[in-house]
């Protein structure tokens, strides 16, 4: 790893990170601000929700009506979309561009002619991806925790909240690895941002549609969202070993392949 | 010691040719010209030397170091000016130069930035995004010299520079060369190669077709001939091997490039009624065109 490159990349992406943090914190705060109103109107909302198809509720990660009346259930049901989907979009956009940008902006002619190995470039940029995703998740989790503390009506399971946050981080990191992998496959340098965002949304769509329709539930296995358990108020909620292995395993394999590909990649400008 | 050694180097982009069986040796302290039009393989050769792309076959060494396995050590010793000055737009000039300088071990002399920037009249506070093409090129040149490289690789370095700055740049190159720097100068502008380089390789369709001292190349057989005949001349009656670019004017004036045996030409001229003959050295441009036919 090269510190000079690492610091430059951290600075280069800092504004984007701060804007994403502000957006996520605002969304979480706004959503959590209506929690007390939901509790005050619990009976009416129960009545309204009984009219909503089960599939539509599952689309939001709600498996039981009572879920959303606990502060953690409300947080999981409403904010999961922000950090799991938006966080994954942030991760994949950052990682799919961080190496490729040097190519399509042609700045690689300067970077690759400095005394650095490809490995140093790769790991410096990988560290930036990891740190950015981690910081965004940390800020989002802190915002969630503060909001829950402010609006809670009773105690909630902080351990479950931590596990939910770890699932979100693992999912975001996996999309970071997918973005990096895709960027090393690109032969002629051009931005792949639209494709990357599309991929996250497609995976999210696959996951949600597989939960709504039993006959196609198996296609859900194709989507990483399927393995990020958001049912935080379940008493048995835990970080499953196989889920952990799935996220870390695929992330590490994709990162390893990306490293090998980048080390032998012809950089066309 | 050879500073650059390229042996049987080939690179294809799919089916498209990059370079084929290129062999080249450049000695220490040389200013070497690498001439060829766009797409001839100049940039491909340079990018292999700098490990931006990988060769399909053959090998290349810089100062005895392998360009693939020992690229980091090589880049500590090499400066590079790319043909396009695409620099990070978000940075200012000083930030970019400082960033570049910090990649080099033992090269933290910030005075070097000031010294070179003053020489090239660069405003260090300006944002890269605000700079003209010429000023970006100057920044690009300055970053290549910050660490006092032993080998400087230049790919079309004068694009965008005004004539005064070009002259200043060439003077700096001569001065650095006198201090031992080897210079690999790739260009399609022959006059600047002629001004600076001692030896030159001409590359055509991915292959080196000529490798000569500039003076030898200039003197080598190819002559530019003007003849004024006493009578109207018919090109068909003036046929001899080695004749090219034949142009007839006013019926009795003939000009051409001649690369054949000079005795045969004189013999043929002796049979004609001649008023005037001028035989001169062709320009490098004309020699270049000759090789590209």
Features:
heterodimer; A: 269 residues; mainly alpha; 11 helices; B: 293 residues; alpha/beta; Alpha-Beta Plaits; 2 domains; six-stranded mixed β-sheet; 10 helices; 32% helix; elongated
Describe this structure in words.
In chain A, 41% of the residues are buried. Chain A is built from eleven helices and no strands. With 269 residues, chain A is an all-alpha fold. Chain A has helices at residues 3-33, 35-40, 42-49, 54-59, 71-98, 100-104, 108-111, 118-151, 158-185, 193-212, 241-263. Chain A has one domain (3-263). Chain B is an alpha/beta fold and 293 residues long. Chain B has two domains: 2-218, P-loop containing nucleotide triphosphate hydrolases (Rossmann fold, 3-Layer(aba) Sandwich); 221-292, Alpha-Beta Plaits (2-Layer Sandwich), CATH 3.30.70. Helix content of chain B is 32%, strand content 31%. The model of chain B has no long low-confidence stretch (mean pLDDT 89). Chain A binds chain B through residues 2, 4-5, 8, 12, 105-110, 112-117, 264, 266-269, and chain B through 13, 47, 50-54, 71-73, 75-76, 78, 80, 82, 84, 86-88, 90, 99-100, 102-105, 143.
What is the radius of gyration of chain B computed over CA atoms, rounded to a whole number of angstroms? Answer: 23 Å
Largest sheet entry of chain B? 6 strands, mixed
**Which structural class is indicated by helix and strand composition of chain A?**
mainly alpha
Number of helices of chain A: 11
Question: Under the CATH scheme, which architecture of the largest domain in chain B would be assigned?
Answer: 3-Layer(aba) Sandwich
Enumerate the spans of chain B where pLDDT stays under 50 for 5 or more consecutive residues: none
Distance between the first and last residues' Cα of chain A: 24 Å
CATH topology-level name of the largest domain in chain B: Rossmann fold
Strand content of chain A: under 5%
Element order, helices and strands of chain A?
HHHHHHHHHHH
Gyration radius of chain A, in Å: 20 Å
| CATH C-level category of the largest domain in chain B | Alpha Beta
């Amino acid at each position: 790893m090269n510190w000079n490159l690492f610091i430059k990349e951290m600075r280069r992406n800092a504004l984007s990170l701060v804007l994403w943090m502000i957006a996520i914190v605002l969304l979480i705060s706004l959503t959590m601000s209506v929690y007390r109103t939901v509790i005050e109107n619990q009976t009416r909302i129960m009545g309204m929700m009984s009219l909503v198809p089960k599939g539509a509720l599952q689309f939001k990660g709600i498996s039981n009506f009572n879920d959303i009346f606990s502060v953690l259930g409300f947080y999981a049901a409403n904010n999961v979309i922000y950090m799991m989907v938006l966080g994954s979009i942030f991760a994949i956009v950052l990682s799919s561009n961080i190496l490729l940008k040097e190519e399509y902006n042609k700045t690689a002619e300067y970077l690759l002619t400095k005394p650095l190995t490809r490995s140093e470039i790769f790991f410096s940029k990988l560290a930036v991806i990891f740190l950015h995703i981690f910081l965004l998740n940390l800020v989002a989790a802190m915002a969630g925790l503060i909001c829950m503390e402010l609006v809670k009506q009773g105690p909630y399971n902080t351990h479950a909240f931590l596990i939910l946050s770890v699932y979100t981080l693992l999912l975001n990191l996996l999309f970071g690895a997918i973005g990096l992998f895709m960027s090393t496959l690109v032969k002629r340098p051009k931005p792949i941002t639209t494709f990357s965002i599309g991929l996250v949304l497609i995976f999210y769509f696959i996951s949600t549609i597989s939960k709504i329709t039993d006959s196609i539930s198996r296609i859900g296995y194709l989507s990483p969202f399927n393995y990020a358990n958001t049912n935080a108020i379940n008493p048995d909620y835990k970080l499953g070993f196989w889920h952990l292995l799935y996220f870390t395993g695929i992330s590490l394999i994709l990162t390893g392949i990306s490293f090998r590909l980048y080390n032998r990649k012809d950089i066309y400008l | 010691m050879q500073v650059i050694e390229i042996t049987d180097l080939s690179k294809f982009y799919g089916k498209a040719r990059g370079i084929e069986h290129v062999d080249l040796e450049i000695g220490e302290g040389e200013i070497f010209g690498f001439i060829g039009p766009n797409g001839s393989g100049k940039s491909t050769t340079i990018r292999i030397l700098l490990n931006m792309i990988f060769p399909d076959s053959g090998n290349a060494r810089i100062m005895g170091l392998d360009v693939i396995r020992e690229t980091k050590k090589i880049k500590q010793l090499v400066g590079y000016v790319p043909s396009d000055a695409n620099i990070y737009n978000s940075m200012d000039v000083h930030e970019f130069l400082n960033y570049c300088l910090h990649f080099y071990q033992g090269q933290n002399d910030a005075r070097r930035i000031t010294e070179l920037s003053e020489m090239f009249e660069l405003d260090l506070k300006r944002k890269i995004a605000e700079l003209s093409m010429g000023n970006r090129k100057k920044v690009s040149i300055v970053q290549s010299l910050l660490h006092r490289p032993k080998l400087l690789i230049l790919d079309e370095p004068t694009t965008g520079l005004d004539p005064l700055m070009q002259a200043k740049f060439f003077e700096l190159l001569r001065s650095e060369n006198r201090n031992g720097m080897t210079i690999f100068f790739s260009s399609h502008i022959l006059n600047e190669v002629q001004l600076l380089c001692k030896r030159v390789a001409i590359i055509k369709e991915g292959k080196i077709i000529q490798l000569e001292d500039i003076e030898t190349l200039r003197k080598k057989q190819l002559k530019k001939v003007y003849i004024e005949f006493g009578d109207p001349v018919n090109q068909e009656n003036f046929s001899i091997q080695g004749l090219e670019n034949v142009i007839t004017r006013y019926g009795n004036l003939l000009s051409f490039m001649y690369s054949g045996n000079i005795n045969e030409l004189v013999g043929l001229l002796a049979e004609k009624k001649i008023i005037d003959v001028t035989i001169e050295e062709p320009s490098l441009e004309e020699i270049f065109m000759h090789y590209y036919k």
